[in-house]
Design brief:
Shape: elongated
Keywords: Membrane, Transmembrane, Transmembrane helix
Order of helices and strands: HHHHHH
Number of domains: 1
Protein name: 50S ribosomal protein L27
Transmembrane segments: 6-26, 38-59, 79-102, 114-134
Helix content: over 70%
Radius of gyration: 17 Å
Length: 139
């Protein structure tokens, strides 16, 4: 359950970070400590969620399906989503968010810092939203 509840916080922080960066980019604000912290919280929350999910992946009952079905998991759409698509896309999303964090630190102008955060965090957020198992979330 912590993986599901923490996901709400992750989504909230990522949405705030993306909106904050878009506003900062479009209004030519200076990149302040507040903006840095918002982006950093987005990075930290997503990494914590990734660790929770990584542990859950290997201890869940669904992981046993790999041993029972092997590559037959790919024929079952629900298992494929939970055991292949979700972890893969989330890993890519977290990698993009991490890249955005790293790239923003190397930028010299505030506008480009906001731009890196907005782009990479935004694409990562879209990837996350695309692979959330919504049918299980609202069940």
């Amino acid at each position: 359950m912590i993986h599901s509840y923490w996901a709400y916080l992750v989504l909230l922080v990522l949405v705030v970070a993306v909106i904050n960066s878009i506003i900062g980019f479009s209004s030519n604000k200076s990149f302040s400590d507040k903006d840095l912290r918002i982006s950093l919280f987005g990075l930290i929350f997503t990494h914590i969620q990734f660790l929770i999910g990584f542990i859950l992946y290997f201890v869940s009952d669904r992981f046993a399906a790999w041993g029972e079905l092997g590559m037959g998991v790919m024929k079952n759409s629900e298992l494929r989503k939970l055991l292949v698509e979700h972890p893969l896309m989330i890993t890519i999303a977290i990698a993009l968010i991490t890249i955005g964090w790293s790239k923003h630190k190397k930028e010299l102008t505030d506008k480009r810092k906001f731009g890196k955060i907005a782009f990479f965090y935004g694409v990562g957020l879209l990837f996350i939203l695309a692979v959330i198992p919504w049918n299980q979330w609202f069940a």
